[in-house]
Structure formats: C-alpha cells, structure tokens
Write a structure and sequence with these properties.
Oligomer: single chain
Largest sheet: none
Number of strands: 0
Shape: globular
Number of helices: 11
Helix content: over 70%
C-alpha cells in the first residue's frame, strides 16, 4: 500500500510535468527493488487512469464545448481525433515491446534526447508571435499526434514531446500544454481500458492497492495541471530539461556503482 501511494503521488506529479511519468514509475521500483504488481506495466496504466480522471474533471467544460461542436468540420475535437490515431496504432503494435524494454539504459537515452529538443524549442521561442490551439490546422495536429506516439517509449514524456511539437508549430506554451492534455485524454483512456482487463486477469492482488494508487494520482494530477498551465504562461521548459539531464546522470551513476 505504501509503495502504491508513493507511485500514485509520483504519477500525479510527473504525468503532466514534462519529465516522463513512465521513467519515474520504472526507476523508483528499480532503485528500491519493489516487486510484484507495483512494478508492472498494468499497474502503471492503472495509475494513468487516476490522471485521466484529473484530466476529465479539470477540462470538463472544454469537453462539453468540444462535443457540442461535433457537427462542425473544422472543430478542434476532430483535430484531436485525427491526432490520436498515431498513438492508438503504435500502442497496439508496440505493446509487448514496451513491456519488455522497461529498462534504465533506454530511459537515459530518451531523457537526454527530449531534453535537447526542449532546449532547441525554447531557443527559437517567441511568445509574441505564438497562437492558441483554436487556430491549429489538421496537418499540425497530426504532427503533434505523431510526436505523442513516440511517448510510448519510456523516458520520452507524453506532455514533454507534445508541448515541444506544439511550440514548433506556432503555439504558445500554455496553449500547447492545454492541447497536449486534451490530446492525451483519449490516449490515456484507451490504454486504461485495454489494461483494465489485464489487471483483472492477474492472479491474487489487493484491489485496495490499485484504488489507492488511482485516487492519489487523480488528486495530485489535478493540482499539477492547474499550476503547470499557470507556470507556462510566464516561464520556459528549460528547468525541466535540466532536471531530465540530472535524472539521466543519477541513473548512470547508479548503474555504475551497482556493478
């Protein structure tokens, strides 16, 4: 239960902050040698269900307006649908590969690569010339959707790579984050539904552990969404890029000292 709560807090914090929740959910059990259900892809996805609840609650008004605009061909909801296709396809195709390759070495690489992309995106950022997500076109939405598909690789960070993609397509930071979170909603929902069956098929496990992790991640995630959007209205992604480099360095040291 303690491990589930810690991982729930970690999921809530890192799902939306661009530092990769999957990396942290893999690394913490690895650092402390936690075994069992808490060290599985199914449990990780269960925690994502908690942050899905946070997304639905925080953006409830946005989703109501989006569904009202279904009849409009250029509605933002259709752009979200199209942008969701690459991740859905990649998730189905690469599910087993993702489960096998939950390892620290891969995470070191992805942490560093996305950190470089963040720094490059910020270097070319000019807030005065940026636009909101309402003006995004189908082509750019699909580009961000392809970027989201890469987030299936541990260490990439779904929010990080999609916010960077949004910045490169002319969006301001806060709006890129909002689009990233809206886009992530169907992706997380789909993965949660698929893995729900896998969790139920596991032999003996404490259902309370699952619900504890989900509840904590939902509460923490809601707070993080709110304050991250406020933060990005004024400040850059650079601190998160530096944190990712630091985390990669810590993993390297840990691997080296464990030999």
């Amino acid at each position: 239960m303690f491990e589930a709560i810690i991982l729930g807090i970690l999921q809530g914090l890192t799902e939306f902050i661009p530092v990769s929740s999957s990396a942290h959910l893999i690394l913490i059990p690895w650092f402390f040698d936690w075994q069992g259900i808490v060290n599985s892809l199914s449990f990780n996805v269960a925690l994502h269900f908690g942050t899905l609840l946070a997304l639905l609650l925080y953006f409830r008004k946005d989703w109501i307006e989006l569904f009202k605009s279904l009849s409009q061909k250029d509605s933002l909801i259709w752009k979200i649908v199209i942008a969701s296709i690459p991740a859905a396809f990649a998730g189905t195709l690469l599910h087993d590969w993702i489960e096998i390759n939950r390892n620290p070495v891969l995470i070191i690489f992805t942490l560093c690569v996305v950190s470089v992309l963040m720094i490059l995106a910020e270097k070319n950022y000019n807030g005065a010339n940026k636009t909101g997500m309402e003006k995004i076109n189908i082509k750019n939405a699909l580009f961000i959707g392809v970027a989201q598909a890469f987030a299936l690789i541990p260490g990439v960070s779904r929010s990080g790579i999609t916010i960077v993609a949004g910045l490169t397509k002319g969006m301001n930071r806060a709006e890129a984050a909002r689009f990233s979170f809206l886009l992530g909603t169907p992706a997380v929902a789909g993965a949660s539904l698929v893995e729900a069956n896998n969790i139920m098929s596991i032999g003996e496990f404490d259902l309370g552990i699952i619900f504890a992790g989900i509840s904590v991640s939902a509460v923490v995630g809601y707070a993080v969404i709110k304050y991250l959007i406020i933060y990005l209205q004024k400040y850059s992604l650079i601190p998160f890029a530096y944190y990712r480099f630091l985390l990669a360095f810590v993993i390297i040291i840990s691997l080296w000292t464990s030999k």
